[in-house]
Design goal:
Length: 53
């Protein structure tokens, strides 16, 4: 799959989301995050930013 030029990857956008949410980052480091719920939360956030998956 080819990325559109100038469009950030989903991985990069998710990394940025994690970096802006210290509580999420802490939960991930402790191994206590529900990854399914986090994926739904991030999907909603990316959709609000008009990012297609």
């Amino acid at each position: 799959m080819k990325m559109e030029e100038g469009k950030p990857s989903i991985a990069k956008l998710v990394k940025e989301l994690v970096e802006t949410k210290p509580a999420v980052k802490e939960c991930m480091s402790l191994g206590i995050v529900n990854y399914s719920a986090l994926a739904r939360l991030f999907t909603d956030e990316l959709e609000r930013r008009d990012i297609e998956q």
